[in-house]
């Protein structure tokens, strides 16, 4: 048999160590994911690491290090497609990005093991587990920090109610007052409102501004002749 004539105990032992280290490290990464009930858990991460190690080790044994590098590139792109499958978009929310990133890192652990860099694979495993555990309190702490209104991105608009006789004049006045206060206007719309009044809506092109100063401009507009009501609106961006 060809197997008997080509079998090399030293090469087999080397491959076994690569596979075993990839399996163990992938299992450690997956255990943390399984504990947190993530989509890609213990078995998935272990198999991704093991599969990456197998492909890289096979290429290295058959064609040497140069071809192993090319196989690593294919592993990176292939696991990228696998990770895309666990990413789900629900409206404005995107879930699964961290799971996909963990799978990608598990493949890197397997690639290190497949190239006999077992110590590096172990170190990378520690960093991956640390990223998924030790950084969680920091993430929660940052999420609890309130965002200042001056730095929060939003769409701002100024709305004024008037009659048909003053609509044209007030339209130009609103633009002038806003631009004098350094609030550039992106768009102005006139629309019919209740009881025959006209609503003038000016959308600002800046999405980060001083709301106190905007309030002062609106108060001055409300004192103009023909204005029955003036206000400013904001729509927060997700």
From TrEMBL:
<feature type="transmembrane region" description="Helical">
    <location>
        <begin position="16"/>
        <end position="32"/>
    </location>
</feature>
<feature type="domain" description="MgtC/SapB/SrpB/YhiD N-terminal">
    <location>
        <begin position="21"/>
        <end position="140"/>
    </location>
</feature>
<keyword id="KW-0812">Transmembrane</keyword>
<keyword id="KW-1003">Cell membrane</keyword>
<dbReference type="GO" id="GO:0008168">
    <property type="term" value="F:methyltransferase activity"/>
</dbReference>
<keyword id="KW-0472">Membrane</keyword>
<dbReference type="GO" id="GO:0005886">
    <property type="term" value="C:plasma membrane"/>
</dbReference>
<dbReference type="GO" id="GO:0032259">
    <property type="term" value="P:methylation"/>
</dbReference>
<feature type="transmembrane region" description="Helical">
    <location>
        <begin position="44"/>
        <end position="63"/>
    </location>
</feature>
<dbReference type="Pfam" id="PF21770">
    <property type="entry name" value="MgtC_SapB_C"/>
</dbReference>
<dbReference type="Pfam" id="PF02308">
    <property type="entry name" value="MgtC"/>
</dbReference>
<dbReference type="InterPro" id="IPR003416">
    <property type="entry name" value="MgtC/SapB/SrpB/YhiD_fam"/>
</dbReference>
<comment type="function">
    <text>Virulence factor required for growth in low Mg(2+) medium and for intramacrophage survival. May be involved in regulating membrane potential by activating Na(+)/K(+)-ATPase.</text>
</comment>
<keyword id="KW-1133">Transmembrane helix</keyword>
<dbReference type="InterPro" id="IPR049177">
    <property type="entry name" value="MgtC_SapB_SrpB_YhiD_N"/>
</dbReference>
<keyword id="KW-0808">Transferase</keyword>
<keyword id="KW-0489">Methyltransferase</keyword>
<comment type="similarity">
    <text>Belongs to the MgtC/SapB family.</text>
</comment>
<dbReference type="InterPro" id="IPR048640">
    <property type="entry name" value="MgtC-like_C"/>
</dbReference>
<keyword id="KW-0997">Cell inner membrane</keyword>
<feature type="domain" description="MgtC-like C-terminal">
    <location>
        <begin position="156"/>
        <end position="232"/>
    </location>
</feature>
<protein>
    <recommendedName>
        <fullName>Protein MgtC</fullName>
    </recommendedName>
</protein>
<feature type="transmembrane region" description="Helical">
    <location>
        <begin position="69"/>
        <end position="88"/>
    </location>
</feature>
């Amino acid at each position: 048999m060809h197997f008997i004539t080509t079998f090399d105990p030293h090469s087999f032992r080397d491959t076994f160590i690569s596979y075993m280290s990839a399996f163990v490290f992938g299992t450690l990464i997956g255990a943390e994911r399984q504990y947190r009930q993530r989509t890609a858990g213990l078995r998935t991460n272990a198999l991704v690491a093991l599969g990456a190690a197998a492909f890289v080790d096979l290429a290295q044994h058959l064609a040497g290090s140069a071809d192993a590098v090319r196989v690593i590139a294919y592993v990176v792109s292939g696991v990228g497609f696998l990770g895309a499958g666990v990413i789900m978009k629900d409206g404005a929310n995107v879930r699964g990005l961290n799971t996909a990133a963990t799978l990608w890192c598990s493949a890197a652990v397997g690639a290190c093991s497949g190239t006999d860099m077992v110590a590096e694979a172990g170190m990378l495993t520690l960093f991956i587990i640390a990223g998924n555990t030790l950084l969680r309190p920091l993430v929660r702490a940052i999420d609890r920090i309130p965002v200042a209104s001056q730095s929060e991105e939003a769409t701002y608009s100024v709305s004024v109610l008037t009659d048909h006789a003053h609509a044209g004049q007030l339209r130009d006045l609103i633009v002038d007052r806003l631009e004098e206060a350094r609030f550039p206007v992106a768009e102005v719309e006139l629309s019919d409102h209740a009881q025959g009044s006209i609503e003038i809506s000016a959308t600002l092109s800046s999405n980060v501004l001083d709301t106190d100063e905007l309030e002062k401009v609106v108060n001055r507009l409300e004192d103009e002749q023909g204005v029955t009501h003036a206000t400013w609106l904001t729509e927060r961006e997700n």
